[in-house]
Design brief:
single chain, alpha/beta, Spore Coat Polysaccharide Biosynthesis Protein SpsA, Chain A, 2 domains, nine-stranded mixed beta sheet, 10 helices, 9 strands, elongated, binds uridine-5'-diphosphate, binds magnesium ion
């Protein structure tokens, strides 16, 4: 712990990012030094299987402003961020990706907006030429769909790249949920939240760690963590299909009385049975999503496990240049 807090913490989760780390560090460091304030840079190694940890330790041997949080295995981006937040001591915390898709050079503008009274300055993508067209379309649709579901609005086209104040960090740290959707949680906190527009670059090097299935999981986590409205879908579906069956009943009675025979038909019967069956399974699936998450929450396991935290001397009174494990 610092005796006085650094002015700003940079928080970067890394999963197999060895190809980008030295460039990321160079750009973050340049921005940090240009501020003329105290700062720390917190890297979280999210169970990388490449040389990421080695690169980070090498950097931290040279630079006392670095903290490296090494998780016990791959926990996923959102949990890596949550773990990192525990180790950020700054008055303000800049959350950004390690692949330089989020330009650290935006920080001075964000700090200025925070000086004007914002507690959260979130970076909103004006364009994202660095991402593929299907991903852009899927993300754009997702944010608009999510906006319809949540009671507290979550800004569209906005990832986790944002500057948050100490009091917001403290509140996020108190939220015990396992399936975390940080951008939704930050929106939920409230206070004054201001956008800053930017163009999202492509990845500096390496490949995305969010293939399609992982994006889908994040989307599902986002919806289930931020809204209970899908649960009401069962009632609405019930209402719609009850109206249809009422109309069908009227038609059958009318045919019986006035035409003298009831409509025949295996095909129509099968159609109704299969439609009803699938709707019921779909709704059960939605309930299952919430129930499964409740089950995991009730088990109350720790949401992440830290193997080691590496920091150079200073903080714990150890010799300069010595990178030490602290727990
Ligand atoms: N990341 C992580 N753990 C994971 C997946 C990703 O810490 O399990 C980090 C990754 O190293 C990067 C950030 O989260 O710093 C965003 O990931 P990525 O750039 O692959 O996502 P994309 O920008 O393609 O959506
Ligand atoms: Mg990226």
């Amino acid at each position: 712990m610092y005796t006085t807090r650094p002015y700003v913490s940079f928080l970067l989760p890394c999963y197999n990012e060895s190809q980008v780390l030295s460039e990321t560090y160079r750009r973050v460091k340049a921005v940090a030094d240009s501020l003329g304030k105290t700062y720390e840079i917190v890297f979280v190694n999210d169970g990388s299987t490449d040389a990421t940890l080695g690169c980070l330790l090498e950097l931290s041997r040279r630079d006392p402003s670095l903290t490296v949080v090494d998780l016990s295995r791959n926990h996923g981006h959102q949990l890596a961020l949550s773990a990192g937040l525990h180790y950020c001591d700054g008055e303000r915390v800049l959350i950004m990706d390690a692949d330089l898709q989020d330009p650290p050079e935006l920080l001075p503008g964000m700090l200025a907006l925070m000086d004007e009274g914002a507690d959260v300055v979130y970076a909103q993508r004006r364009s994202r030429p660095g991402d593929s067209i299907p991903k852009r379309i899927a993300c754009s649709l997702f944010y608009r769909f999510l906006g319809k579901l949540t009671e507290v609005p979550i800004p569209v086209d906005t990832g986790d790249f944002r500057l948050i104040s100490r009091r917001v960090v403290e509140i996020i740290l108190q939220m015990p949920e396992r399936h975390r959707f940080i951008r939704g949680m930050v929106s939920w906190v409230g206070f004054r939240q201001t956008p800053i527009l930017y163009d999202r670059d492509g990845r500096f090097a390496g490949t995305t760690k969010y293939p399609f299935w992982r994006l889908m999981k994040l989307a599902l986590d986002g919806i289930v963590a931020s809204s209970v409205r899908p649960l009401a879908l069962a009632s609405w579906a019930g209402l719609v299909f009850a109206s249809c069956s009422l109309a069908l009943l009227v038609y059958i009675l009318w045919s019986w009385f006035f035409v003298g025979k009831t409509p025949q038909g295996w095909a129509s019967l099968m159609m109704v049975v299969t439609i009803m069956g699938s709707i019921q399974l779909f709704v059960l699936g939605i309930i299952g999503q919430y129930l499964g998450r409740m089950h995991e929450q009730v088990r109350a396991r720790p949401i992440f496990i830290v193997r080691d935290v590496f920091r150079q001397g200073g903080r714990r009174g150890l010799g300069d240049g010595e990178v030490t494990r602290c727990r």
